[in-house]
Write a structure and sequence with these properties.
The chain has 424 residues and is an alpha/beta fold. 39% of the residues lie in helices and 23% in strands. It contains 18 helices and 15 strands. The strands form 3 sheets. It has a 7-stranded mixed sheet with strand order 9-8-10-11-7-12-15, with helices on both faces. The protein has a 6-stranded antiparallel sheet with strand order 3-2-1-6-5-4. The chain has a two-stranded antiparallel sheet with strand order 13-14. Strand 10, helix 8 and strand 11 form a beta-alpha-beta unit. Helix 7 runs parallel beside helix 8, helix 8 packs across helix 10 and helix 10 runs antiparallel to helix 15. The mean pLDDT is 86.
């Protein structure tokens, strides 16, 4: 560690591992980071709004500092367990916030990953879920699948759904890995595959206890999928997640797990995908003529709207509270909004977003509702691509379409929309 590069205050702090631990946790809170990574040969890294940033004012970790950092997150029993298994999951509280940690030995070096848990469970309205979603999650049976890759905040949405349904007369059972948020009124269980408590085995137990709502953290294998489908067919509402990139790809994924078309058509109610995007800073947003300044992007966005049913567009405008004046400004003048990064009053760096032009984040959603027509397409043997095309022609909202309407509302920029979404 080249000490001359770093301030005396930082170097003195590192000599007190418990103080340095608290400093790192406070750094996560102050920067609203979802995760922190402590790895050999690198300074700490923060994940903020799905982007990873190295904290270059802090020195890189060597083996001694990593070992001390890991040790000061554990008691003696946990330390012995880690030395034996070379991997451990932990919980930690600092001030008013809770953290989840994984500490593992990667070949020769320790790696520490810290997750900052949400202060509170958001409501479905705070997640900007459409009204139809609330109606679907109220149904007494079927499967609702959340399909997305890592870092999509799936646990936040799952807990928001359970919070919405959580009433004294509703019996809710969850099987989680791990239990991130403890909620009053829920029967929450921790999966322990190492001793035989798997998702599938817990699900079979749930069928004997007859809850109204079952949440399975993730469908990973054929046995769990089959048991979840059995639960849905016996009048249970089942929530779960599956690792795919889109709602349509879920069909191929469950077929590969052994599901039959009649089982999918008979149990699936909704498959949704979700991503997190950086939101335009409201303080420094400025007008931007999309057609004039970015004709290629203008063409893509117009293609999206032209493929949509006009009645579908009217419905989305109403549901999203897009004013007639704003719709006219977009369709006649092609005005959108981007963050300038400059304070509109002084011209200096924006004090809200720090000059990035983006502040906070916004969710983009994709909803594939399994109505009778879509179920018939599946029973007729349609491929996942054919099912998606049919759904898009019949009111389906995919990530790109949702992003276009959020662009019209000034929430995201075209570049941010197409950073992770592919134009179809």
């Amino acid at each position: 560690m080249e000490e001359k590069k770093y301030s005396d205050a930082i170097l003195n702090l590192i000599k007190k591992p418990d103080k340095y631990r608290d400093y790192l946790l406070q750094l996560m809170i102050d920067n609203k980071a979802s995760d922190m990574y402590l790895t050999y040969g690198e300074p700490p890294a923060l994940r903020i709004y799905d982007q990873v940033y190295r904290v270059k004012q802090l020195p890189p970790f060597d083996d001694e500092l990593l070992t001390e950092s890991a040790y000061f997150f554990m008691d003696e029993f946990e330390w012995e367990k880690f030395r034996r298994d070379l991997d451990i999951d932990l919980w930690w509280s600092y001030k008013w916030r809770r953290f989840r940690l994984n500490i593992s030995k990667q070949q020769k070096h320790i790696m520490i990953v810290i997750r900052l848990l949400a202060e509170k469970i958001p409501t479905l309205d705070e997640l900007w879920m459409p009204p139809i979603f609330k109606e679907l999650v109220k149904r007494k049976s079927w499967i609702i699948l959340l399909a997305w890759p890592t870092w999509s905040w799936k646990s936040t949405t799952l807990y928001a759904c359970l919070h919405y349904l959580n009433r004294p007369e509703v019996n809710i059972t969850t099987y989680e890995d791990p239990v991130e948020n403890k909620m009053d009124g829920l029967n929450q269980s921790q999966v322990r595959a190492d001793i035989g408590y798997t998702f599938a085995s817990w699900l079979r137990a749930a069928l004997r206890q007859d809850p109204d709502v079952i949440m399975v953290w993730e469908i990973r294998d054929e046995e769990t999928l089959e048991t979840a489908m059995e639960a849905a067919m016996t009048w249970h509402l089942v929530f779960s997640t599956i690792h795919t990139n889109s709602a349509a790809e879920t069909i191929t994924r469950v077929y590969n797990m052994g599901a039959q078309p009649y089982m999918v058509a008979g149990t699936f109610n909704l498959v949704m995908a979700q991503r997190l995007w950086r939101k335009v800073c409201e303080h420094c947003k400025v007008k931007y003529n999309l057609k004039k300044d970015n004709p290629a992007m203008y063409k893509q966005i117009m293609e999206v709207l032209q493929k949509m049913n006009p009645e579908h567009i009217k419905r989305e405008i109403k549901l999203r509270w897009i004013s007639p004046a704003r719709w006219t400004e977009f369709t006649k003048e092609w005005i959108i909004y981007i963050g300038s990064g400059k304070d509109p009053n002084t011209g200096d760096i924006c004090p809200v977003c720090g000059g990035s032009g983006e502040k906070w984040r916004v969710w983009l959603y994709e909803f594939m509702e399994y109505d009778d027509d879509l179920r018939q397409k599946i029973l007729d043997g349609a491929s996942a691509l054919e099912v998606e095309k049919f759904a898009l022609n019949n009111w389906m909202m995919n990530l790109e379409r949702d992003g276009v309407f959020k662009l019209i509302k000034w929430w995201i920029t075209p570049n941010e929309l197409y950073r992770l979404v592919k134009h179809n």
